[in-house]
Design goal:
Strand content: 35-45%
Strand order of the largest sheet: 7-4-3-12-11-10-9-8
Largest sheet: 8 strands, antiparallel
Low-confidence stretches: 1-31
Structural class: alpha+beta
Distance between the termini: 35 Å
Radius of gyration: 21 Å
Helix content: 10-25%
Shape: globular
Order of helices and strands: EEHEEEEEEEEEEHEHHEEEH
Length: 287
């Protein structure tokens, strides 16, 4: 089965406008141009493989019936990125036919058409074994968070101890409707936190509140003293580790080390909660 998430789904209906959904919010998009449709970041899910991959396409331009791309990047979410080879993309009626060779010499062929909600296709490895593949479009910022979460397991393996302090940080704002929805769903009548994260009593849950979601860049001012340095620039001008661009914002911090972070309830559910579960399990096994 495919590892489906509440992320971007994409549909192309000839010259009709495109509507794409991110998390739980539907956004109107520009008129559907074939180059615009495939430009950007994609999650690549191969059936039967628990490790997701990604594909980034930049500088896509239409030349007749072909879609040329200036630069590409492909790899596992928790690995390095390399360009793809033998890129081919053709516009055929209301469909876009795509084929390329991955850095590992696997062939991916896929079709985006008017009847699909994502790009579906075939993954053939270097030994000729074929499996279904799904490509799902993502905002570039979410791909960055996914890649960070993919690498979080390595951080946990190196740092978790039997006495490690596992912190789930939540930053909300007074004028944030999604924050009110999160509080109502997760700690109100539905009590989704107990459902989604039974390990919740075994972690430390910290909350910080901003006067406005517009003040997100100033989040260091409302964090507990031990976490505030993570949201400030380093002594040598290093970028802050905590990148709070809006609310609701969530972060997993183990022993004052940032492991993963995400925005929105969808990010909490698909990125943070699985990492929290893993951290609790690893702490238990280290005892």
């Amino acid at each position: 089965m495919f590892n489906l998430h509440r992320r971007t789904t994409l549909a192309y209906f000839g010259s009709l406008p495109l509507v794409w959904a991110v998390g739980r919010t539907a956004l109107a998009a520009p008129p559907a141009d074939p180059a615009w449709l495939i430009e950007g970041a994609w999650l690549v899910s191969v059936e039967g493989d628990p490790r997701d991959r990604f594909l980034s396409l930049a500088g896509v331009q239409r030349q007749g019936d072909s879609l040329e791309v200036a630069s590409t990047a492909y790899g596992y979410l928790d690995g390095t990125a390399k360009p793809v080879r033998q890129w081919q993309a053709r516009v055929v009626g209301d469909s876009i036919h795509i084929q390329f060779l991955t850095p590992g010499d696997s062939i991916i062929t896929a079709v985006l058409d008017a009847n699909g909600a994502a790009i579906l296709g075939q993954f053939e490895n270097s030994k000729g074994k074929q499996r279904p593949v799904r490509l799902t479009k993502l905002p570039s910022s979410e791909l960055a968070e996914l890649r960070q979460a993919g690498k979080a397991s390595k951080k946990l393996t190196a740092s978790i101890r039997s006495d490690s302090r596992i912190v789930l940080l939540y930053v909300g704002a007074s004028d944030c409707p999604s924050c009110s929805g999160y509080q109502a769903e997760y700690f109100g009548r539905k009590n989704l936190m107990a459902v989604q994260l039974p390990e919740f009593p075994q972690i430390t849950y910290l909350q910080a509140r901003l006067g406005s979601y517009r003040a997100a860049p100033m989040v260091a001012n409302v964090l507990p003293p031990e976490l505030a340095p993570l949201a400030r620039s380093g002594p040598q001008g290093q970028a802050p580790q905590i990148r709070c661009h809006g609310t609701p914002y969530f972060a997993l911090i183990v022993d004052e080390q940032l492991i993963a972070q995400a925005h929105g309830i969808s990010g909490l559910e698909t990125l943070l909660i699985p990492q929290v579960k893993q951290a609790v399990a690893m702490r238990r096994s280290a005892s």
